[in-house]
């Protein structure tokens, strides 16, 4: 839909409006441009159910997901600008279509991953058994709660290990509770990394051997 020259990767992302795409590229590589054109291509594509959808209905079936609020805001702004351009350039019969798209754009699913998932959870809150009025924790609040949970778990673990696990007590004495809590919190942050589950199953001898090889 754009006259701007495309790289082969950008052209591939725009080639088939019948499938979902994910873009991964560095800053300044044109991700927002490609997502904007892809969004518009989805709006213009023939309806895959064989019916001519109303423009706002089609708009509500498209999800554009980014990593940051700033990127989502920029993407929505770019899409709005292109829709205005297409409306102004369209034949009279098509202008109403783009005007309807512009009116419905604020309700379109153009958001971060967290916001998209949050909307799904709120929509199905009863089935999921969660409070529809829930809110996401701010990173700072989440960190405070994590620190409290780690410290409480360590205190309980140390109390339970008295007389049964001298090595754990020695480690706590060497690092002090604050240092041990920081180490545990750091490990918790890496639980989704490849190899973490294998590390949890490793014996002390395995860990010592790995450290010696390193």
Explain what you see:
The chain is built from eleven helices and two strands, in the order H-H-H-E-H-H-E-H-H-H-H-H-H. It is mostly helical. The longest helix is centred in the last third of the chain and has 24 residues. The mean pLDDT is 80.
SSE topology:
Elements: H1 8-15, H2 31-44, H3 55-59, E1 63-66, H4 69-89, H5 92-104, E2 109-112, H6 113-123, H7 125-128, H8 139-161, H9 166-189, H10 196-201, H11 204-213
Parallel strand pairs: 1-2
Helix pairs in contact: 2-4, 4-5, 8-9
How is this structure best summarized?
The protein is mainly alpha-helical. Helices cover 65% and strands 4% of the residues. It has 11 helices and 2 strands; from the N terminus they run αααβααβαααααα.
* Distance, first to last CA: 54 Å
Shape: elongated
CATH class of the largest domain: Alpha Beta
SSE order in H/E notation?
A: HHHEHHEHHHHHH
Q: Given the structure, what is the number of helices?
A: 11
List its traits:
11 helices, mainly alpha, single chain, 2 domains, elongated, 2 strands, Rossmann fold, 214 residues
């Amino acid at each position: 839909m754009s006259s701007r020259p495309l790289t082969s990767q950008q052209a591939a992302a725009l080639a088939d409006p019948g499938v979902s795409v994910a873009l991964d590229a560095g800053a300044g590589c044109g991700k927002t441009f490609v997502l904007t054109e892809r969004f518009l291509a989805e709006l213009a594509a023939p309806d895959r159910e064989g019916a001519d959808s109303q423009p706002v209905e089609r708009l509500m079936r498209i999800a554009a997901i980014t990593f940051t609020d700033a990127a989502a805001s920029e993407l929505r702004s770019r899409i709005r600008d292109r829709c205005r351009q297409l409306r102004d350039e369209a034949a009279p019969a098509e202008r109403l279509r783009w005007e309807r798209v512009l009116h419905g754009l604020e309700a379109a699913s153009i958001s971060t991953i967290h916001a998209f998932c949050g909307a799904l959870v709120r929509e199905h809150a009863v089935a999921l058994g969660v409070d529809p009025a829930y809110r996401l924790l701010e990173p700072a609040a989440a960190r405070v709660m994590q620190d409290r949970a780690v410290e409480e778990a360590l205190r309980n673990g140390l109390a339970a290990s008295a007389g049964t696990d001298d090595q754990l007590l020695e480690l706590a004495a060497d690092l002090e509770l604050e240092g041990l809590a920081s180490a545990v919190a750091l490990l918790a942050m890496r639980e989704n990394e490849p190899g973490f589950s294998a590390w949890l199953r490793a014996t002390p001898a395995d860990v010592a051997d790995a450290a010696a090889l390193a």
